[in-house]
Amino acid sequence: MEQATLKAQIMDEQAMDRAITRIAHEIIEHNEGAEGIALVGIQRRGVPIAERLADKIEDIEGVRPHIGKLDISFYRDDFKRHISPVIHATEILFSIDGVDVVLVDDVLYTGRTVRSGLDALMDLGRPKTVQLAVMVDRGHRELPIRADYVGKNVPSSHEEDVRVSITPLDEVDSVEIWGIEKTVGGEQ
Amino acid sequence: MLSVKHLIDTTSLTADDITQILDTAKSFDPIVNARTIKKVPALRGRTIVNLFLEPSTRTLKSFELAEKRLSADSISMGGSTSSVVKGESLADTIQTIDAMNVDMFVVRARLAGTPQKITENTDAIVINGGDGKHQHPTQAMLDLYTIREHFGHLDGLKVAIVGDLAHSRVCGSLAPALKTMGADVTLVAPPTFQVGDPSWFGCNQTNHLDDVIEDMDVVYMLRVQLERMEGAAIPSRREYNRLYGLSLEREARMKPNAIICHPGPMNRGMEIDAEVADCARSRILNQVNAGVLTRMAEMYLLLGGEE
Prior knowledge:
A: Rossmann fold, 24% helix, globular, B: Rossmann fold, five-stranded parallel beta sheet
């Protein structure tokens, strides 16, 4: 059994909104505009974050980037331990050939999800570049992967869980650190 | 994760299991039917042996394609090419293959109970690809998928399964699975082809297709299995076609949104008329497509649930 206790809130709604605004500006700056950009959110929380980023980019540049959803269940390297009870849709209704794709996820941790996401993306076409945007980078990488755009760097331990909540999937916008305690089975 | 370790029959599957298989199959649909690269690495490095002790084309090819699309390594063995014909017992054949460390067997056999027996001789997972007159669970799953795709649900649908019920493992798997999902099943057959037990899985039974055809959402025609026939169960091909064949005239009396299914291969002109097999209601080719998707789902869920 695992028991989780809230340790701290590290971003509230305002902080997340500011981070998304800043990342939107950075994406536009790096790509010299919003033409030819596609934002692809990794299911599930990468999807609403990608939508928020698209809203911001549209506000700033007057151009709305393409948005896609990517499910990586069939690309996991640890699927024996993590079989997904629900497979979410991959929905990329445009060609990614020659496009600058920004992969969007909530938390960057070991890098394995992003690795699976890259493989899944490459099976759909040949993007010009792939960049990575995350709300939180919590360290502990197991693969040579880094994010191009980071909402907040959060040093964490393996005994902690970083949880991103975002509307409309969740009730509020928030980033929290939870402590995970392994309790011995049978004890109260 | 499914509640069963092996897929031997549909009577062991819960409604949750079936829904999970159909939902997972649905998520393979865009991969297999819309993409240029039609495969995913989900079962990379897993080894699957297709042991087909009875001839089969569509089931074997469907499994082989499903395995390739999941990136599994697979080999196919037939009865005539295996040591079974040299007098080796089935248990020895299984243990020999098992010694090469395989993850899954897909078994097609003439003798009912063979897949179940094989589970006792291996640690690998076993999928029943059709055993004698007993069960053909992967056929039932592709049928349910096809029907659910058309209607959006299975509960409350009226389904007639028509034909050679007594010899049919397709019916043996499909009827109980439909009942589990809340459908209303009517078995239509001449007395010599009926299942025998009047209370069988709570299905309605009748000898007259014309009495029920207008009420049905799905008319599922079974192949008359001439190769499994013992004695003269039907008087003649023509008489069977006249009483139980799906003709254009009968097709015209079906509900506007009703569909026609058939597990294949068809005897055109016997259980189904050629024009009906190709008509707008026919979902026969959709069934073939669904076969790859649902078999991918079954292998993915069974191998993924293993610890």
